[in-house]
Amino acid sequence: MDAQQQTEFLRRRYLKPLAVAGRVLGMVSEYWGHPGWHSEKTKNIWRDMVEGLDIDLIKNGGCVMFKYPKQSTEDMQMIRVWHNPPGAGKWDELSGQREVMQSISEDARPDGSVAGHIHRMQIASEVYAGGKRKVFYISAGTLKGTNPNMA
Q1: Alpha carbons within 13 A on the beta-carbon side of 148
Q2: What is residue 83's three-state secondary structure?
Q3: What's the half-sphere exposure (Cβ side, CA atoms, 13 Å) at 116?
Q4: What is the reported pTM?
Q5: 3-state class of 36 per DSSP?
Q6: CA dihedral 59, 63, 69, 75 (to 10 degrees)
Q7: For the segment 47-85, what is each residue's pLDDT rounded down to a tens digit?
Q8: For residues 18 and 76, what is the distance between their CA atoms, to the nearest angstrom?
Q9: Which helix (H) or strand (E) covers residue 64, if one does?
Q10: Cα–Cα distance for residue pair 122/140, rounded to 1 Å
């Protein structure tokens, strides 16, 4: 399929049913790192996929605020969301997220960070020297590939 057909397929097959069911919080956008993807100068592929579906676009590295039932506004949880964070470690799937979070002072640091680009899973919760609270990290271990029998 060409890029437009892929966009329409993803929208029809996955995003629209999830959006109608209220199962999508948002979609990470503006990551142009894969060869062959549309460039900013032509069109925004993410806007095309979510147009009219009530799905928020979250810029790569942007923050999302979560407020759970029976929780005060002051206790909302802030999470930094990535398609692919900067930096990479050969053995540590969380190194890029950790580098970004450690560069932010504790008062302004989000509660956690999640990413999915590398398709390898790792989860951590850490307290930094002198820190007052934990920070969590999640690297989603999603499968990648087009072969239905093997990732």
Answers
A1: 0
A2: coil
A3: 11
A4: 0.74
A5: coil
A6: -170
A7: 888 888 989 888 888 999 988 888 887 778 899 998 888
A8: 25
A9: strand 62-66
A10: 7
